[in-house]
Specification:
This protein has nine helices and 14 strands. It is an alpha/beta fold and 326 residues long. The chain has two domains: 208 residues, NAD(P)-binding Rossmann-like Domain (Rossmann fold); 86 residues, UDP-galactose 4-epimerase, domain 1, CATH 3.90.25. Helix 4 links the parallel strand 5 and strand 6. The longest helix is centred in the N-terminal third of the chain and has 22 residues.
Length: 326
């Protein structure tokens, strides 16, 4: 599936474009002869992720922070499409430093929306949210219209608050907005998450693997290529001022099976799994949603389906990460 051709005629801003997901989005846009500006403070992103585009006439990099309103205003000046991916991705951080997620998600999103309202000419605003906005649910797979939305982490709450801001600005100031609620997006370049943690731990000690929680936590994992494909395929098909899409795979995988895949791919045969037991019924940490599978019928109805299952995505990611370490 290819991106809607309309995007190639426009100047595009990608916030967080040097990060994991953002850099893959930049790659896809630039490979289709796009005109792209990246705004990133490089706190978690890395210039090497977008190094191949530095110096390209269709590419501009601005080191800046959305907490600085002048940086946001400068970035949106000539952009007709805004992809807002900048955020702190560490969900666990919200239990010990909630102000980080409030600043990096809520305040940063507000500043960017204000910049678009006052100085920009964006017709599309794309926001990457999270499955964590749902919290613990009674319906799995969980559809976009599930209610009530009751996040159990400050990270999830900050994403939900940002969604509300995006919806309000789109309806009040007349631009289209698309919100994607991500499952766990995985692939090379990622420097956080369970796969990265397992590989790092096993390099340190190849005989024992600490697993947070009781190992039964089960979630949907989507490979990065499928994620970018879905975004570019669907973003311009919005039928309302605000469109919300779940974005994930069609199945889920538990943490113990992920551990087995990682040890297999690393060629380790005598690893002892040590479960911490977790909290609140076997969760990995306070605020961890134990079971997550998003309903993706809405994306399927417009013609998109993921290519890889959760297990396939995990195995491909492990292989790619191990190859990066060679």
């Amino acid at each position: 599936m290819k991106a809607d051709g309309k995007i190639l005629e426009k100047q595009v801003l990608v916030t967080g474009g040097a990060g994991f997901i953002g850099s893959y989005l930049v790659d896809a846009l630039m490979k289709q002869n796009g005109s792209v500006c990246v705004l990133d403070n490089l706190s978690s992103g890395n210039l090497k992720n977008i190094n191949q585009w530095l110096g390209n006439s269709g590419f501009k990099f601005q080191k800046g922070d959305l907490l600085n309103r002048e940086d946001a205003e400068k970035a949106v000046e000539d952009c007709e499409v805004v992809f807002h991916l900048a955020a702190n991705p560490e969900v666990r951080l919200s239990s010990v430093a909630p102000e980080v997620h409030f600043d990096q998600n809520v305040v940063a999103t507000f500043n960017l929306l204000e910049a678009v309202r006052r100085f920009g000419k964006a017709k599309f605003f794309v926001f990457t949210s999270s499955s964590t906005v749902y919290g613990d649910v009674s319906q799995i797979p969980t559809p976009e219209d599930y209610a009530p939305l009751e996040p159990i982490s400050v990270y999830g709450a900050s994403k939900l608050a940002s969604e509300a801001l995006v919806m309000a600005y789109a309806n009040t100031y007349g631009f289209n907005a698309v919100i994607y609620r991500f499952a766990n997006i995985i692939g090379p370049r990622s420097k956080h998450g369970v796969i990265y943690d397992f590989i790092r731990k096993l390099h340190y000690n190849p005989y024992e693997l600490e697993i947070l929680g009781d190992g039964t936590q089960s979630k949907s994992y989507l490979y990065i290529d499928d994620c970018i494909d879905a975004i570019l395929f669907s973003y311009a098909k919005a039928k309302r001022y605000v469109e919300v899409y779940n974005l994930g795979s069609e199945d889920r995988i538990d943490v113990t099976l992920i551990a087995h895949i990682v040890t297999e791919e690393m060629g380790l045969r005598k690893v002892q799994f040590r479960f911490t037991g977790g909290i609140d019924g076997g969760r990995g940490w306070k605020g961890d949603v134990k079971h997550m599978l998003l309903a993706i019928e809405k994306l399927r109805s417009i013609g998109w389906t993921p290519r890889l299952s959760s297990a396939e995505a995990v195995r491909k990611t492990v292989r790619a990460m191990l190859n990066e370490l060679k």
